[in-house]
Write a structure and sequence with these properties.
- The protein starts with 11 loop residues before the first helix and ends with a strand.
- 3% of the residues lie in helices and 61% in strands.
- It has one domain: Lipocalin.
- A 10-stranded antiparallel barrel has the order 1-2-3-4-5-6-7-8-9-10.
- A hairpin with a 2-residue loop joins strand 6 and strand 7.
- It is globular.
- The chain is mainly beta.
- It has 1 helix and 10 strands; from the N terminus they run H-E-E-E-E-E-E-E-E-E-E.
């Protein structure tokens, strides 16, 4: 008889998230938006770590603008095998409710989206180049026409 407490092993879909693991730093461009009318440049620092025995990757994020740490985020990336979808549970220093982004991870491109009260937000992590993450966040009122909100290119440090 098998134990009801037997540990499961992460699947290939779970292990795909390991491409995010590490310390990353890079330049960011904030496009003008309702949250940041002027836009501007920043430095992003990311620490992604394996968690929950390989079933999740936990992210600690910090943005520095004009030599001041101005924004912090905490994320949990996971693969939901029952729904066959990737998820990001996001918390940040804006102080709002946690966000849930859902989507796909195919050919080194993780694309996640959420519906908000004001429309939609889509985020993507391009991991196709070794040692580089290309990140993009976009907003939309209808999930058809997208406008860039933030872009970053991060190198492993």
């Amino acid at each position: 008889m098998s134990s009801p407490y037997a540990m499961l092993d992460p699947t290939d879909a779970h292990r795909a998230l390991e491409a995010l693991i590490g310390r990353w730093q890079g330049e960011e461009t904030m496009h003008p938006s309702p949250w940041d009318p002027k836009g501007g440049s920043a430095i992003g620092m990311i620490h992604n770590a394996r968690s929950l025995d390989g079933f999740a990757v936990v992210q600690e994020y910090q943005q520095v603008r004009e030599d001041i740490a101005s924004f912090f985020g905490h994320g949990v990336f996971r693969y939901d095998a029952q729904k066959s979808q990737y998820e990001l549970h996001w918390f940040d220093s804006f102080g709002g409710a946690p966000s849930l982004f859902i989507g796909t991870f195919e050919h080194g491109l993780l694309v996640l989206q959420q519906a908000t009260q004001g429309g939609f937000m889509r985020t993507s992590w391009d991991l196709r180049q070794a040692g580089i993450i290309r990140y993009k966040a976009e907003v939309s009122g209808d999930a058809i026409a997208w406008q860039p909100f933030m872009e970053g290119v991060y190198e492993r440090v």
